[in-house]
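User: Predict the complex with flavin-adenine dinucleotide.
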Amino acid sequence: MNVTLRVWKQPAPNQPGRFESYPAKDIPAEASFLEMLDIVNNQLESEGKEPIAFDSDCREGICGTCGIVIDGRPHGPGKAITTCQLYMRAFNEGDTITLEPWRAKAFPVLKDLVVDRAAFDRVIQAGGYISINTGNACDANALPVAKLDSDRAMDAAACIGCGACVAACKNASAMLFVSAKVSHLALLPQGQPERRTRVVAMIEQMDKEGFGNCTNESECEAECPKEISVANIARLNREFLLAKLLT
Amino acid sequence: MELRSNVPDGPIEKKWDSHRFNLKLVNPANKRKHTVIVVGTGLAGASAAASMAELGYHVLNFTHNDSARRAHSIAAQGGINAAKNYQNDGDSVWRLFYDTVKGGDYRSREANVYRLAQVSANIIDQCVAQGVPFAREYGGLLSNRSFGGAQVSRTFYARGQTGQQLLLGAYQALMRQVHAKKVKLFTRHEMLDVILVDGQARGIVTRDMVSGKVESWTADAVVLATGGYGNVFFLSTNAMNCNVTAAWRAHRRGACFANPCYTQIHPTCIPVKGEYQSKLTLMSESLRNDGRVWVPKEKAVSEAIRKNQKSPNDVPDDGRDYFLERRYPSFGNLVPRDVASRNAKMVCDEGRGVAVSGLGVYLDFRDAIKRDGLDVIKEKYGNLFDMYHEITNESGYERPMMIYPAVHYTMGGLWVDYNLMSNVPGLFVLGEANFSDHGANRLGASALMQGLADGYFVIPYTIGGYLASNKAAKVGNDHAAVKDAMAGVNARVDKLLAAKGKRPVDHFHRELGKMMWEKCGMARNEAGLKEALAEIPKLREEFQRDVNVPGSASSLNQALERAGRVADFIDLGELMVRDALERRESCGGHFREESQTEEGEAKRDDENFCHVAAWEWKGDGQAQTLHKEPLTFENVKLTQRSYK
Ligand SMILES: Cc1cc2nc3c(=O)[nH]c(=O)nc-3n(C[C@H](O)[C@H](O)[C@H](O)COP(=O)(O)OP(=O)(O)OC[C@H]3O[C@@H](n4cnc5c(N)ncnc54)[C@H](O)[C@@H]3O)c2cc1C
Ligand code: FES
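Assistant: Here is the predicted structure with flavin-adenine dinucleotide placed in the model:
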C-alpha cells in the first residue's frame, strides 16, 4: 500500500520544528507501523538523507520506549496498544498520516519524534519503591498476600511508563502514571511502612516536573496501552489526602 | 595464557560459603572511596548497581536506553526458577543444579551452577520484599508453574510479564540509590570502549547519544551487564537495540570471548512473514504447559492447509502427529528448547510444516480449553493470546496458534571465573553477557534467575574481594590510556560517517543475519560454516565501503548508533562461525549435522570437547587464538541427555 506521512521534524531540543511530508511506497499491509517507518528510513538513508528519528526497542508493547502521536492520538488508532503494536492494516490506501512527538512541558523533544521522559524516573526516585536492601528479606511465603490484593497490585504495576497518559491529557497531567505506582505499592503489605511518605514525595516531585493537574476527563485511561484504570487516580487522591491528614 | 577458573576447593555444597568467608572485605568506611562502573540496567546491571550502592560503593551506571526501566529484561514473559520446593514435589538446590547442568548438556562449570541454584531462593525472597506481584494462590501464597527441562514446578511468575515486574523491582531499588546519590545514572549513553591501565580495567568511554559528546569515566573496577548478542542474526526475539558492542570492545581489549557459537533457538515464536520484518515475537514457553504441538501426519494435508484449502480444526486426531509427545513420552511438550526447536525444524524439512512459508507448526489449546474451560486458559495466558491476535490477526482460542523457532538467547559471552571476573583484572561480567551458567543450552526461566543471582548475590561479595586486594592508584582523565581510548572512539565514529556509500546500515545487518541463520543457525555443518567464513570478510569490506550513515556525530543519530553495532556484529559473526567449526560435536543449542545419533539426536563428544572454548583477540585482520578451559564433573555424571 501507499500512504503519505506528515512528520514533525525538529533537529534538536530548543530548535524550531515543522512538518515535512514523506511518501511511504509499496508497504506490505502485514507490516507494522514501525516497520513502515523502517522502510521509509532505509530509503532515506540510501539516498544519504537523514532518517526520521523515533524511539523503539522491544517492539512488543512492554518496554514503553515507543510513542508517536498518530493522527492526534498517542499510539495511534486502536485500543490498548503501543505504537509498535500498530499494524498498517489499520490504515487505507492513499491515507495521509500525521506523526508528532508526545507534547508536554515535562517531556522536551530531543529530535523529531524522540522525547525526554526522564521526569518519570525522577518521580519514581522521589519514593516509588519499597526500601529494602539486598539480603534483608524474609522467606517469601512468610507474608501471605490475599490474591485479590495481589491481582489489583499487578493490574497497577502493569504500567509501562510510556507517557501516553501525559500526551493524551490536555493538561499534560501525570496522575495516571503516578497513581499506578502508588497503587501498586499501597495495595501490598510490603508497601505499608512508607505508604504515607511515598505518596507525598511522589506528588511533590510530579508538580516540580511541570506536569499539569488532573481535571477528571479520563483521556489518559482511554489511550493507555495497558488499560490502567482511572480508579487508581481516585486511590491516589485518597492516599494523598490521608497522608496529609495523618502526618 | 592460562584461564584460571578460581573455583574454591572443598565439597560443592560448601564452596560458596567458604569462598565468601575467605574473600577479603572492604572496610565500610572505605567503600565510599571506591568507584565502580556498571554498564547496563537490565536485571543484572540494575541489581548489581543498587546492591553495591547499598553497601556503600560509589557507582556510575550507564545504559543506552532512555530509562533504566526499559532494558531488554523487561520483555521476559514466562518466569523465574527457584529451588523453593513450595510445591513439595521433590525440588531441592541439588535438583535445580542437576537439571541446569544436564539441560546445559554438560558444558557449564559445575561450581557456578551450584551457587546459582543455592542463591535462587534468596532471589524470590528479595523480589517479594520489593513488592514484585508474583502470581498467588487463593490462600495468599506464591503460585508456581512448570517449565521445559524440569519435572518439578519451580517457576515463579507475574502473569506473562515476569521480566517486567522483576526489572521494575530492581529498577526501583536502583532509583532509591540514585535518590540517595549513591548511584549516578547516565541514560542514553552508549559505552564504546574499555580503558585499561597496567592491564587492569579502569574505565570506559561513552558517547552521549543526544549531544554526541564522547567522554571518559574512570573507576576502580568495571562491571559489564550488557546483555546478549542474539541480534547478530538480525531477526531475533531480542529488543531492537540489543547489541554486542560493549562485550566486543572488551574482547578487543583482551577479554576472552567464550563459546560464541552457543545460541539458543526458542521453539515458540511467531513465524516470519516477510522481508520487511524487523524482529520476531516470542510466545512464552509456558504455553507448552497446556498447548500441544503438532503437524499433520500427511504431507498432502499440510499442503492443503498452506494453500488455505483446509482448516487445522478439521484435521481429525488420528491425522495429527503430536511429534513431541510421540518421541519424548516422559517430557512430552515440555522437552528443553533445543530439542523442541530441532524437532519442529525436522517436521518442516519433511514438508509437513503449516505456515504459508512451510515453516510453522501448531500449538493447540483445544484440549486444554475442553479440560479447564476457556476462562482458566484466559486467566493464565490471556495477554499472550492477545499478542498473538494483534500480530497475526488470528485467534489462538479458535484456531491453533502457529509457531516456529527463532533466535532468542546467547549462552556464549565473555569468559569469567568463579568471581565473575573476566581474564582482564577488574573487568567483571554479569547476566547474559557472560558465558557462565547455562552451558550449551539454557533452561527456560533460568536467565532471569542468573541475572539477579549475579547482581544481587554474587558481585556484591566478589567485587569486595577484588578491591580489597588491589590497591591501584587513581587514574585521571589525562592519563595516556584514557586519551588513547577516546581518540580510538572518535576515529571510529568519523570513519563510519565518512563512507557515504549507497546502502543503509540495515541492509548489511540483514545480509549478515541471513547468512548466520542459514549457516550457523539451528543446524550447522562443516561445508556451510566454511562458506560463511569465506563470505563474512567480503560483507565486512562491502560494509566499510558502501554503507551510508547520514547526519553528524554531534547530535542524536540513530543510523550512526546502528552502524557501530553492525560493524561489531560482523566481527562477532565471524568468530561464532569459527567457534562452531572448531566444535565438531553436537551439544545443546549447537547442532553439528556430522555428530548425531541414529535417531537424529545431538551427539556429544566428551572425549574431545568437554571444555569451554575461550577466544583471545589478536588484532584486526588476525584470527583469534583458542584457549580451552577443561570442564570437570565431580558431582553430576555425564550421560547422553535423554528426555524420552
Ligand atoms: C522475549 C524474551 C523473553 C524472555 N523470557 C524469559 C523468561 O521468561 N525467563 C527467563 O529466565 N529469561 C527470559 N528471557 C531471557 C532474559 O530476559 C535475558 O536473558 C535477561 O533479561 C538478560 O538480562 P541482562 O541484565 O543480562 O541484560 P539486558 O536486560 O539485555 O540489559 C542489558 C543492559 O545493558 C545496556 N547496554 C548494552 N550495551 C550497552 C552499551 N554499549 N552501552 C551502554 N549500555 C549498554 C542496555 O541498555 C541494558 O540496560 C527472555 C528473553 C526474551 C528476548
Ligand atoms: S517498542 Fe517497546 S513498547 Fe513499543
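The two ends of chain B are 42 Å apart (CA to CA).
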